[in-house]
User: What shape does this take?
Amino acid sequence: MILEGLLARAVQMSTPLLLGALGEVMVERTGVMNMAIEGIFLLGAWAGFTGAYITGSLSAGFLCAMAAGVVVGVLYGWITVFLKQHQIVTGVALNILAAGIGIFFYRVLFGVPLLPLTVEPLRPLAVPFLSAIPVLGPALFRQNILTYLAWGAMPLGWWVLFRTRAGLVLRSTGANPEAVDAAGISVERVRFGAVLAASALSGLAGAFYSIGYLGLFSNDMIGGRGWIAFALCFLGNWNPLGALLGAVVFGIADAAAITLQTSGIRMVPNEFLIALPYILTIAATLARKRFNVPASLGTAYTKEEK
Amino acid sequence: MTAEKHGGNSLSESLTDPDGILSSLFFSSLSVFLGLASAGVLMLFLGHSPAAVYRDLFSFAFRDVYNIADIFAKAAPLILTGLAFAFAFRAGLFNIGAQGQFYLGAVTSAACALSFPFLPSWLLLPLCAAASMAAGGLWGGMTGYFKARFNANEFLVSMMSTYVAVAIMDFLVRSPLREAKGEYPQTDVLAEASWIPSFLSGTRFHWGFFLALAAAGAAWVLLWKTTLGFRMRAVGKNRSAARFAGIREKNVFVSVFLVSGAFAGLAGFLEVNGVQHMVVQGFNPLLGAEGIGIAVLGGAHPLGVVLSALLFGALKVGGLLVTQTSSVPSSIIAILEGFVMLYVILSFYLRHRLRRACARRRAAAGGEAP
Assistant: This one.
């Protein structure tokens, strides 16, 4: 019973990490790190909640979250790709700003409610027959629609990246921008487009926390989960399937922490469980020896000047 | 891992190679002004007149001696977290974990004061200061060590280690260091012998501010007057050239993070022994992020950091009073900081373009001359 709940929760909690990590893999393959990911998660959570609360439709909420992600992505992409400014510093600025804006407009729209405002979160959809399999059935086949989509998107992302022409362009832009430029493809446009797509996915990921799972918005609901998705990208060696593996491990850690905290078993301090995913990230960063870093990651591309 | 390639970006160029103090001052002031204006636009959504809010903000900040003194009290820890980021940035490294180093410094300083309340002030204060610097320095040094030993991404490790530090602090104030009453997650009030004496009696302006100034001076000396500083800046400018020059970059990584973490840890001593006189769970949660903004606004130069920290201190004192006396939410302060940082980054682009245009004009003029 406990195992079943744990597995189901692990699969569920890996959803936003998958979406965020997939976007990050795509954008980093073109040579840009999306350093605004944490802020986009929080703004996505806010926009998703706001959209869903006002329209009463969860789909509208998810669309709002993606749009909010794209807005931050436009700013981030413009400054880092076209103006060629520093990715880490720009990301830090946008993270502070995006978080502030989400919290500010929650207050503008809803004031200070006595009880947190809620919406009905996504409902699980059981797959007929398969969900009746003991233990694994409920874990894998009684999830909400976003979880199925996120899991399906990973192999799809792998296929696009490694088996299609578009994927080849993405990877070449990160590995050898000069060659892409020589082939007549605009490096800046490819990178900017990838930033927008990754930002949309991260916005969606953020909305999972607010309307896919809890049904409310709070200022501290992301708490570094965006950075964990960011870390999964390189722990998974810039490969969607590698990121999938990592997300499952983190999903289990997250789920174990929640399960142990609510079960009343006190073997270790709660704080240790809360810190576990972050400790795991550091440990995994250290354990990873060989990396397949995109050659131009983090550097702006400037055509040779006449 | 990735930071290695940042050397040639125009931001690090402008951030560490300013074209004259006057131009830096002009563009920093412009960024602050535009930041205030943008945050002002958002206030319109709440039906507030930005002009009135800012008038209140600055008149609150400079209303009386108490508030003016408070600016210095607020600026002191900001100088230190700003230095923490700026110092590492000079070596091309990113210490994003100042918040965690600050928390561990704070909790260690408090533990020290609570364990030795019988010691005289002249012994207890240096002890607390040293303990906070050691705690912050070791926690930061861990990131540097991981980078040197495992080639780990220092950005990610320092970021993640902050969440671990928060958990450690939460555990300590919930359990071993919890107040005798056991009511709230906070420590008892520290013995008066461990309080930093105030500079202006009746205000929160304490001698710690001058300790922060001394730290800024020490950072300047370290960066420009010592071999370590030379090596750091060499590694920051061009890592492979530094390697060819025989500089052992791994030692630089560890030393930089030790010093950088010690700055942030010392901020913990200032806040706990100078202002709060106890540790409350989750206090000052934005000190680390604000330090990054201050370092960027101050051009990663110790003097710039001190001036920016004073400005942020004034914004905090005035901003806090505005948010307490009106319906403007406190998140406006974070928004203001975010906008100011964005405009600083944009101004670097502008300055880069201006420099290039000047150089081209000069080249053209030189070509026409016989």
User: Anything to note?
Assistant: Chain A has one domain: 2-113+139-287.
